[in-house]
Amino acid sequence: MTHSPTPSDSPRYTPDEMIADDIEGYLAQHQDKTLLRFITCGSVDDGKSTLIGRLLYDSKMVFEDQLAALEADSRRVGTQGQELDFALLVDGLSAEREQGITIDVAYRFFATQRRKFIVADTPGHEQYTRNMVTGASTADCAVILIDARKGVLKQTRRHSYLVHLLGIRNIVLAVNKMDLVDYTEDRFDEIVADYGKFAADIGIADFTAIPISGFRGDNITAAPSDNTPWYRGASLIEHLEEVQVSAAEAAERPFRMPMQWVNRPNLDFRGFSGLIASGSIAPGDTVRIVPSGKTSTVKSIATFDGDLDSAQAGQSVTLVLDDEVDCSRGDVIAAADDPPESSDQFEATIVWMGEEALKPGRGYWLKIGTQTVTASVQEPKYEIDVNTLDHLAAKTLQLNAIGVAELRTEQPITFEAYEDSKALGGFILIDKVTNATVGAGMLHFSLRRAQNVHWQPTTITREEHAGMKNQQPRVLWFTGLSGSGKSTIANAVEQRLNLMNRHTFLLDGDNVRHGLNRDLGFTEADRIENIRRVGEVAKLMTDAGLIVLTAFISPFRAERRMVREMIADAEFIEIFVDTPLEVAEQRDVKGLYRKAREGNLKNFTGIDSPYEPPEEPEIRVNTVEMSVEEAADAIIAAILPLK
Amino acid sequence: MLYPLRIRLAERLRYCAPPPQVNTGFRVPGYSVLNPFLFARAAVVASCTANMTRPLTHLQRLEAESIHILREVAATAHKPVMLYSVGKDSAVMLHLARKAFHPSPPPFPLLHVDTTWKFKAMYELRDKMARESGMELLVWRNEEAEERGINPFDHGALHTDMWKTQGLKQALDHYGFDAAFGGARRDEEKSRAKERVISIRTASHGWNPKAQRPELWNVYNTRLSGSESMRVFPLSNWTELDIWQYIMAEDIEIVPLYFAAPRPTFVHGGQLLMADDLDRLERVLGKRPETETRSIRFRTLGCFPLTGAVESEAATLAEVVQEMLLTTTSERQGRVIDQDEGGAGMEKKKQEGYF
Predict the structure, then answer these.
(1) If you average pLDDT over residues B43-57, what whole number do you get?
(2) What is the pairing mode between strands A332-335 and A295-302?
(3) A596 membership: H or E segment, kind and range
(4) B35 DSSP assignment
(5) Catalytic annotation on A554?
(6) Has this prediction a pTM greater than 0.95?
(7) In this predicted structure, what is the pLDDT of residue A77?
(8) What is the DSSP code (8-state) at residue B166?
(9) C-beta separation of A278 from A416 below 8 A
(10) Does B201 have pLDDT greater than 80?
(11) Which of residues 64-93 of B touch A (CB under 8 A)?
(12) Chain B closest-CA separation from residue A280 CA (Å)
């Protein structure tokens, strides 16, 4: 070998001595290895391919002919001068080899004495969301790479968020390229402290940080390397050998097996085949078929190798039941005393993977476990900016966007929350025309919890409440830009109504945010929730017989429509305080426009967030032509007689 | 320094009672009280031990995954077929199919795309396995290649193209199969590392890397549009060593040519070949090759004039695995087919519809 990566060690394929001396013993030892799937996250520059190449190389998964090719390639297109470029071992398609980037999820394999590993190698640049989510979906562990020179970057946050979203609980922070920061402990500590702060913010409670150099081989197979005597933890490989595999957790949950295929070779045998998603099962156990709810008892677990005494999560089996119960593909066979729920309305996080954006309301095939049904996704509640984790208002989801939305299925599906069960909580969405997989999602909960909450009838009706006040309840909904004069005019209207002995209440935007809505910010999603709550409160007040005045920017038509639909017919009166942006900005009573223009106030209506004027408001007042008094009088005139 | 981060977290959390200490034999990776999930995990580990649930081995997990894939496709495809090349990977795939559907026979036929140039021992095992599994065996030979006498000596790459690539397409079209199981593995070759378990092919059986679907969890999208078809690779996540270990553990019958024995050999085009059919070789080569008996075996099996033998004394499975682990040459080197067109050979063939 002329190009050894470090002068000090000259890695060659040196097989385990046991292979030559005692092959039977060696094979017996390797028979009972466990399997760990992990994902590596990092960008082109973090040295990810180099690290994976290094893992393959150090675990002796590189054969001599590949090594020869690697040497030749390193010289020809390598980026490491005369040294071996490990990245060339793993960069697959010729196009990406030329560009020096990886463009898809690639799976690599290596093994140590104790474990077999499957590595999902995903790129850190464009298409990252789709690819990383795909790779993370099957991983038990994530290795997040950081370039020690650069520290925690935006993309580190993005990668961490995505692996956390997909439910990976074992996170390794591999601080790479330690050779380029002189292996200094201080730099390592600084990065770890930085990352710890951010990780706690997104709910990652625990991670393991390891200082490495993929290129030089430090702390990859053994630790500490001579260059990091200060490091007291395990090497990357040692750590990966110890990480707990999530299948072990699934085994302890209640039994669930999505039914794949009815096995019926003849009239004497009828078995139900599937992969056990969680729990364990033995002959004699009582099971429930969901959704039908029928129960039966397991007679036997039939396999090619004879009947089993028991089977557990992760095994593919065929169950024979005692009775002739109906069970077909898509049903879930579950523990009788603890079956999963069925529902047809959910909230879910959705990752969009199609070139064509999500069409809210359109029917897609939804596949979850072995169930395939038609489903439609509502307009997202919000989109998540994967770089800042801000919630943004969204009407759709574009390729690689992640959002939270409600979805409805045409038939009920059997499910569990994704955080409890990936097998019954993770789904894909399929375009009905192209049949491409266009989205993936994680179910949070069913929206039909309301099924169990009933209306309690009250004796005093809303009509009686209103009658005692001798008035017709109303909601006077003032909408308009900040500084348009909503609060001022609403206040003047309320004064006039009081003089007329009307029972009123003014809900003001700023005031509500001091109490009821103080948990909400100003992202579009939060603003929508702000309006929804105000709508509900206004509705309760009309039930109490009040005339409610509300002064909220309420910039979106959809939310104003939502409130209109909540309130009884003819009681909702939309009042458009029509003030042009220039005028409102000139007034700038609270100095907010100036802040927004200076970039110190995000999502400010009219500046970087849209205002959708009402198309057909019941009342329009023009504050350029009218004074506050004139506007208030005009409104009173329009709403009388109020009886 | 970070293992130490856990200690720091622990310091911050001293108000909370520590989780119960259970000696599980497992190392519980640093729980912290911040995360309720981690409490749950500690409890899981504890009850795990109580029930004596053993973690599945890597072979058990691979087997379960492959069976899941076979069943998903069989349950949803209109007309699936299993491509059977009689090699060791095919042997494992067939074995898994028998396990997946037991006691039924696998609900699809076996398809052998024959080039007429396979080893005799392969034809024998093929017929035997079809009988044993109770599956229908379909054999397809490209008539045009047969008529034009296409052979591996005179026609080189054209032989592979016509008999295998074109032959496979013809067979799939002829029978109208919409799903074909194949024994390819991701560890075989760099461009295979990105192949999906379910690989969508166009009407002309082409593979467009950009049109492949993301595959999440174990939820496979088996829906096809119009004239698309799918190639399905249940062994995607197996390595060569896994295959051998499984053959050993499950006692799967494979072609005897994988084991060393004295066999008639000759050298042609720099490769050590086996003289499997001397009369035929004489007809094609114009002269009877001079053979020498050597102890040889094969690491992969294909057409006998295209498959290089290695000199070996490994006569048992354990010895074969031992030799594989001690030699340092990757598996496909014995196959002339991958050496065409530099490193991108397989990727290019796949785009043209080769398996």
Answers:
(1) 51
(2) unpaired
(3) helix A592-597
(4) -
(5) yes
(6) no
(7) 62
(8) I
(9) no
(10) yes
(11) 64-65, 67-68, 71-72, 74-75
(12) 9
Predicted local confidence at residue B350, as pLDDT: 54
Cβ–Cβ < 8 Å for A130, A355: no
Residue among B241, B343, B334 nearest A70 (CA): B343
The span from the CA of B66 to the CA of B93, in Å, is 8
Q: Which of A479-488, A542-551, B91-100, B186-195 has the lowest mean pLDDT?
A: B186-195
Give the total residue count for chain A: 643
Q: What is the pLDDT of residue B43?
A: 34
**Dihedral of the CA atoms B287, B291, B296, B301 (nearest 10)?**
10
The verdict on A386 touching B (C-beta cutoff 8 Å) is: no
Task: Report the Cα A530 to chain-centroid distance in Å.
Answer: 23
Closest to A65 (Cβ–Cβ): which among B62, B102, B330? Answer: B330
Q: Residue B123 has what pLDDT?
A: 95
Instruction: Round to whole Å and give the CA distance between A333 and B180.
Output: 29
Asked, as a colleague might, if the bond just before B4 is cis with ω within 30 of 0, I would say no
The pLDDT, as a whole number, for residue B41 is 34
Of B30, B53, B330, the CB nearest to A206: B30
CA–CA separation, A430 and A362 (whole Å) = 11
- Picking from A170, A205, A263, the nearest residue to B35 by CB comes out as A205
Answer whether A256 touches B (CB < 8 Å).
no
Closest chain B residue by Cα to residue A94: B344
Whether the per-residue pLDDT at B29 is higher than 50: the answer is: no
Q: How far apart are CA B22 and CA B208, in angstroms?
A: 53
**Cβ atoms B351, B207 nearer than 8 A:** yes
In tens, the pLDDT along B326-340 reads: 775 555 444 444 443
A70 near A88, Cβ under 8 Å?
yes
CA distance A261 to B250: 24
Structure tokens at A370: 């072995």
CA distance B287 to chain A (A): 34
Residues of chain A with pLDDT under 70: 1-16, 44-45, 59-70, 73, 75-84, 86-103, 123-127, 449-457, 524-525, 643
Neighbours of B338 (CB within 10 A): 16
| CB contact burial B85-107 (16+ within 10 A = b; e otherwise) | bbbbbbbbbbbbbbbbbbbbebb
Is residue B2 within 8 A of residue A208, CB to CB? The reply is: yes
Between positions 554 and 613 of A, the ones with CB within 8 A of B are: none
Angle between helices B88-101 and B58-76 (to 10 degrees): 70
Candidates A27, A65, A115; nearest CB to B248: A27
CB contact under 8 A, B58 and A269: no
With a cut of 80, say whether residue B283 has pLDDT above it.
yes
Name the one residue in this structure whose structure tokens are 């017996």. Answer: A28
Lowest mean pLDDT among A83-92, A263-272, B6-15, B263-272: B6-15
**Token duo for residue A630:** 């004139």
What span, in angstroms and rounded, lies between the C-alpha atoms of A219 and A232? 11
Give the pairing of strands A34-41 and A141-147: parallel
State the DSSP code for A180.
G
The Cα B68–Cα B101 span in angstroms is 10
Considering just the CA atoms, what is the radius of gyration of chain B in Å?
Answer: 25
Find the distance separating the first CA and the last CA of chain A, reported in whole Å: 97
Give me B169's structure tokens: 């397409």
Confidence of residue B8 (pLDDT cuts 50, 70, 90): very low
Q: How far is B294 from chain A (nearest CA, A)?
A: 23
Torsion of CA B172, B178, B180, B186, to 10 degrees: 120
Identity of the residue numbered B130: A
C-alpha B37/C-alpha B46 separation (Å) is 14
Tell me the ipTM for this assembly: 0.80
CA atoms within 13 A on the CB side of B247: 23
The residues, any chain, with a CB within 8 Å of residue B143's CB and separated by 6 or more, are none
